[in-house]
Specification:
This protein is an alpha+beta fold and 341 residues long. It is built from 12 helices and 13 strands. α2 packs antiparallel against α4 and α5 packs across α6. The longest helix is centred in the N-terminal third of the chain and has 17 residues.
Length: 341
């Protein structure tokens, strides 16, 4: 039980959020509340951004997060302030804000990020159960190596116009040299498109809409920090099972004889193994009966435990005049043979 949830609320995540979820939430909240993006340089705006940064600094560190969960906000803040004589209040104080607004600090200008690159990733229920490593190929913009992101061709000392200076003119009027200025690789755009491949590890027990983030692998842009590459897992429909949290749900149809006399059902689980469910006679299964099988559900992430398998039975009643004494006798003998009665 955590002492308070203030820092989790600042990032809009649950107290049991994973490290990847905290990273993604931080960049989304930081981008949303950044004073430059809000075009608001008021003290309240800066303070809100600083609180989000503090929340990330605490929750992204395993030791600090554990201390915060056990002791709360005030104790955590006091502990961090004492480290190396550093005061978080000094960093986010009015003095720091004044320095910012007086152009004595280029903190925010230095912290511009390119937008995150987000891809959906189709994932089967079997992959969520077993875990899976996938290779993903994508296109991304990278800074041009030929011009180092300047957009200018490396000047040639043989250029008859600029003699290797990339510009022409006199001391008062300077013009870009038209002969050798534009980089032939990026055509002056400073970035080029690159084909990339990355391995994504889907851990056992991950869920639909869960996000996997790779820091600093988004599009590059000169003068900007690189944003993140984010994958959003999208669960594909399964023919047999559906999922609710850590539990698996399946539907199974039985006839009236099986409902009265018992039955054995055989199915293949997500791990490939055949499973047998036996129901002895003597206990009537009415339509929509639900049976729970412990530990046959989904694996719980970062745990050796499993959820449950929930089976919903649909009893198929015979059509009018479809039963006769001979059929009833055969079904009864079959039930005895299967040791259900």
């Amino acid at each position: 039980m955590i002492k308070d949830s203030k820092l989790y609320d600042l990032l809009a995540v649950e107290p049991n959020a994973s490290e990847n979820e905290i990273i993604v939430a931080y960049y989304e909240m930081a981008e949303r509340h950044h004073p430059e993006n809000l075009k608001d340089d008021s003290h309240d705006s800066v303070s809100k951004f600083d609180e989000i940064k503090f929340a990330y600094d605490v929750l992204s560190n395993e030791e600090n997060r554990k201390f915060y969960d056990e002791n709360g906000y005030d104790a955590t803040k006091e502990k961090l302030d004492k480290l190396d004589g550093f005061s978080y209040d000094d960093f986010t104080s009015q003095n720091f804000y004044n320095n910012l607004t007086n152009n004595e600090c280029n903190f925010y200008q230095d912290q511009k990020y390119t937008k995150n690159l987000v891809f959906p990733l189709k994932t089967s229920l079997k992959d969520f159960y077993r875990g899976k490593k996938k290779l993903f190929e994508y296109q991304v913009l990278v800074i041009c190596n030929d011009c180092d992101g300047t957009g200018l061709k490396k000047a040639s000392i043989n250029c008859s116009k600029c003699f290797g200076k990339n510009e022409t003119g006199n001391a008062r009027i300077r013009e870009v040299c038209t002969e050798c200025s534009e980089c032939p690789i990026c055509a002056g755009k400073r970035v080029v498109q690159a084909h990339k491949q990355i391995e994504i590890c889907i851990e056992k027990g991950m869920r639909h809409k869960q996000q996997i983030a790779f820091t600093g692998l988004s599009n590059q842009k000169p003068g900007y920090q690189t944003g993140d590459l984010i994958f959003i897992l999208e669960q594909s429909k399964h023919d047999t099972f559906s999922r609710y949290e850590d539990h698996l749900i399946m539907k199974h149809s039985i006839n009236l004889t099986e409902a009265l006399c018992g039955f054995k059902m055989l199915f293949r689980h997500l791990d490939g193994r055949l499973k047998t469910i036996t129901h002895p006679g003597g206990e009537y299964f009415h339509n929509q009966t639900i049976k729970c099988i412990p530990k046959l559900g989904m694996p719980k992430i970062n745990s050796s435990d499993f959820g449950d398998l929930i089976i919903k039975f649909d009893v198929k009643f015979p059509e009018n005049k479809s039963l006769n004494l001979e059929k009833i006798k055969v079904n009864f003998e079959n039930a005895i043979h299967l040791n259900l009665l």
